[in-house]
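Sequence in, structure out.
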Amino acid sequence: MPTLKPGDTFPSDVTFQEVPTSRYIPWSEESGDITSCGIPINYNASKEWADKKVVLFSVPGAFTPTCSVNHVPGYIQKLPQLREKGVDIVAVIAFNDPFVMSAWGKANNVRGDDILFLTDPDAKFSKSIGWADEASGRTGRYAITIDHGKIGYAGIETDRAVVKHSGVDAVLASL
């Protein structure tokens, strides 16, 4: 598949391996601790996002400096503004396994399904749209908005450790 661009249709066969969240495993004090593990379940993004407004952003790796300091916090802080713009789902993907992504969500005090922390094993999705990092084979740093199956915005970072086209401000400006 070529790179996604505004006006394209979101692929009909995208399934991410998702970390447990309250949407699938009810959140409780016992499972809310960063050291608690749940059982990963598959997440059929094509089905779940078909009739919703979605912001999907991708980072090269959980717990890395740029991702943890400059990328994810902006989406957490501006989640109310995204909701005001009609966004139903905010999801972040990374190359990491579901247990790391779950811990990263918990480390950022994300509870429930405010932001889905999904895994893109082997950068399968990112490679399918041409946005995996060629040097490392990991997911690239990018953001996509999907409105009822149609791509509204698609921005990728071409410089290392930069959050400009994939950051929450660029996404908010596009909504």
